[in-house]
Amino acid sequence: ETGVTQTPRHLVMGMTNKKSLKCEQHLGHNAMYWYKQSAKKPLELMFVYSLEERVENNSVPSRFSPECPNSSHLFLHLHTLQPEDSALYLCASSQGIENEKLFFGSGTQLSVL
Amino acid sequence: QKEVEQNSGPLSVPEGAIASLNCTYSDRVSQSFFWYRQYSGKSPELIMSIYSNGDKEDGRFTAQLNKASQYVSLLIRDSQPSDSATYLCAVVSGGYNKLIFGAGTRLAVHP
User: Fold this and answer.
1) What percent of chain A shows pLDDT beyond 90?
2) Which of B50, B77, B93, B94 can pair with B63 through a Cys bridge, CB separation 3.0 to 4.6 Å?
3) Residues in chain B where the model's pLDDT stays below 50
4) Which residues of chain A approach chain B closer than 8 Å at the C-beta?
5) A50-102, pLDDT tens digit by residue?
6) CA-CA distance, B108 to B85, in Å (whole number)?
7) CA neighbor of B83 nearest in space, from B28, B9, B30, B23
8) A102 contacts in B (CB within 8 Å)?
C-alpha cells in the first residue's frame, strides 16, 4: 500500500459516456499527477497539480478534464473518449513539486468501446 | 522532445545471476535519475535514485551513472524469481523538473 488510492480499478465506457476517475493520497503530499500508461509505451505525464493549482498541462485533449479540490484529492473527468484512450491511468503524488520521488496509486484500467 | 530509451526485453537470466538493465537519455542537462519496478498488474515503485557519476549500492541493487555518455544502468545481484518485473528508467528533464520515463525493460528470472 503506497498511500495513494485510486478508484475504480477497472472501467469500461462507451464513447458517448461521461465518467470520472478518483485519486486520494494519505501522505500529506502537496503535488499530485496524472499519468497515462499504454502497452509498450513510456508513461506519459498528463497533468500536474501543486497545492491545488495546475502547473502542467501536457498537451492533453480537452476530453480529459482534471480537477483538484484540495491537496489530497484529484479527479480526472472523462467525456467523449476514443478507443485509443484505452490505457492504464495512474495517479501519483510527491512531497512537493520539486521532489521527484513519486508514489503511485494502483491505477484505473480504462477500456473505451 | 526529451527521450529515455530502454531495451524492451525480455531479459532472461537464471536465478543467482547478475541482471544488467540499461538506459540512455537525450537531455544533457539532466541531473536526477531513477529506477522504478513495476510488477505485472501493479503500479510503479521507486527502488533507486542516483544523482552523481559513479555507482550507488543498495542491498542487491547497484545503480550506475555516466553523465558524459548519458547512460544509466541498474545491476541486480543474486537475481531472484521475485525480481521478475518491468524496470522503468526515469530522468528529470533539465528545464522542467518533471520525470520522463522509458518504456521499460521486462526482466524474467528463471529458477
Assistant:
1) 74
2) B50
3) none
4) 2, 40-43, 45, 48, 56, 90, 97-98, 100-107
5) 888 888 777 899 999 999 999 999 999 999 999 999 999 999 999 987 777 89
6) 7
7) B9
8) 44, 46, 99
